[in-house]
Amino acid sequence: MANIKTTRQKALIAVGMLVALVTFAGTAWFGYWHIIDSRNPYGGHNSYGMRDYTAETQQRDAREIVAGLNTHDPDQVDVFRFHGRPDNDALNNASLQAIRENVTAVLPAPGCQYVVDGIEDKGEQDRPADLVPWFRNIVEHAWGFDMKLRQLCPGQPPTPHVVRVIAFAPGVGGFWNRAALYEQG
Known about the structure:
Blueprint: H1 2-39, H2 55-69, H3 89-104, E1 113-124, H4 128-131, E2 142-152, E3 159-168, E4 177-184
Antiparallel strand pairs: 1-2, 2-3, 3-4
């Protein structure tokens, strides 16, 4: 009888330790991913699996885009460019040309520079494929934010400009990628 009682106690202790181990492992796993997600500059997840496009990320993206625009070279503006397989060279070249034209349309005037005054989140955009037509076949969701800019030209007063940045997620990972720029009225 004492042997059965000892076996039962050992079994209960083993089950208790197993429950504690599983609870600890689950808590550690959740905590690890929470820390990883909090270090991610793109923030957490939204309702359709994309990472949130936070104000901090938009502000950083605006600074990087404006730095590229201020070079007056559309190829130096950090927007998403799809480099596919060699058998898609014609499509890739057409995309690169469309991107170059899109960026050129919002470059500062010759001799002038942009300064970022602020951003305004515009949220999810309707008709995402129409906003980034060169990537029509891979765009499902698009997000927009407006860069409020001042154009500074020598000998002239500053001129306000607003450029809408359109971002989308072109694949796995759910990260927003800057893809198109549009001057706003």
